[in-house]
Amino acid sequence: MDSLSKNHHSPSVPALFNGYPEHIPREFSALWPDTLTLITTYTCNAACSECCFGCNPTIKGRLSLESMKSYITHARLGFPALRLVVFTGGECFLLRQDLFDAIAHAHHSGLMTRCVTNGFWGKTDSLCSRTVHKLVRAGISEINISTGLDHQQWVPLESVVRAAVTLVDHGVVTLLTVEADTAESACMKRIVEHPRLQPLLGRSSLFRLQSNSWMPFTGTSADRAISPDQSQMRAGCKQLFHNAVITPQAALSACCGLTLEHIPEMRLAGNCAGASMQAHYYRQFEDFLKIWLAVDGPYTIMTRVLDNNEPDELAGVVHICQACVILHRHPAMRALLKRRYREFMPQVMNRFYLEHSLEAALLPPEPKFA
């Protein structure tokens, strides 16, 4: 939050390296970010009414192959902890050959790769087979396929099943994520009972099925059968610091959560040239609220500043990202945070340093070469 970061003391001494803040131990650079997420485009073959980014076929704009390669190269050189590059959207497979070339670039840079897709390319056996062969040749590590009630208005279940089965048959780790159903829909039941998927369920180490919370973005959204995981709701945010995110507009963001476009404070740089990525990323450690979010999460922060009383605004919240929007955008909550955050700084910062000092101490030693 801008108002908090302005009040928080920021170091005036030159950084240790390319923007690294002096108040953060240098060994923490071996912890994060471990993931570079490229939101390659907001263009999508689908137009789900509750899409978190509002993606649809009419939205234009995307990351070029040259820019994707540049971001991957600079992130690989600038972030010692980087292990994974995620390609998402929109629908990243609309980038066609550029997507496969970008995956290959990340793979040859020694990084794991993941694509998030709706699986539309599983429409026919021939298209599916060609796509999976290109993925394997490029060096893909994992594919995440999203489906469910809204998605299946645009991408039939059979396309999703064909894509998942073909990926597993070719040795690709595959996660199938299903939207939470309404009282009337039974998407998960149809998937679990699908004859082509049943041999994979619980029997293949390459295949996993999960159901996700469904976050409403419009007042017309049908109620979903959701029982929120209260332990996750009250936990610290696992996205912050672990993820460096590039949007289709080449903006560097602090997370790729479902409400990213609803929280301006998550944008770290309006236009991120690859070489400046590191300095922009490390600047977020000068914002106490982001550290607090990583330690306690938005739900717990709001209850703490309300003296352990749960705010009315959290009623019906089913996802940590929903709570994060309320924390950032509700005027009364912003005012309360600004007034009280100093009370919590000492113990929050102590917990932040302790947790990550222990984590850094447990890292395996860097390999030594003769």
Defining traits:
370 residues, alpha/beta, globular, 11 helices, 9-stranded mixed sheet, TIM Barrel, 2 domains
Assigned CATH class of the largest domain: Alpha Beta
> Biggest sheet, open or closed, and with what strands and sense?
9 strands, mixed
Ends apart, CA distance between termini: 47 Å
Strand content: 5-15%
Taken together, the total number of domains comes to 2
Rounded mean pLDDT is 87
CATH architecture of the largest domain: Alpha-Beta Barrel
Assign a percent range to the helix content: 25-40%
- What is the name of the CATH superfamily of the largest domain? Aldolase class I
What is the CA-atom radius of gyration, in angstroms? 21 Å
pLDDT below 50 for ≥5 consecutive residues: which ranges?
Answer: 1-16
Description:
The protein has helices spanning about 1-5, 65-80, 95-110, 125-140, 155-170, 185-190, 230-235, 275-285, 290-305, 320-330, 330-360, and strands spanning about 35-40, 85-90, 110-115, 140-145, 175-180, 205-210, 245, 250-255, 265-270. The chain has about 375 residues and is an alpha/beta fold. It folds into two domains: about 30-225, TIM Barrel (Alpha-Beta Barrel); about 290-360, no CATH class. The chain has a nine-stranded mixed beta sheet with strand order 6-5-4-3-2-1-7-8-9. The longest helix has about 30 residues, at about 330-360. The model is unreliable at about 1-15 (pLDDT under 50).
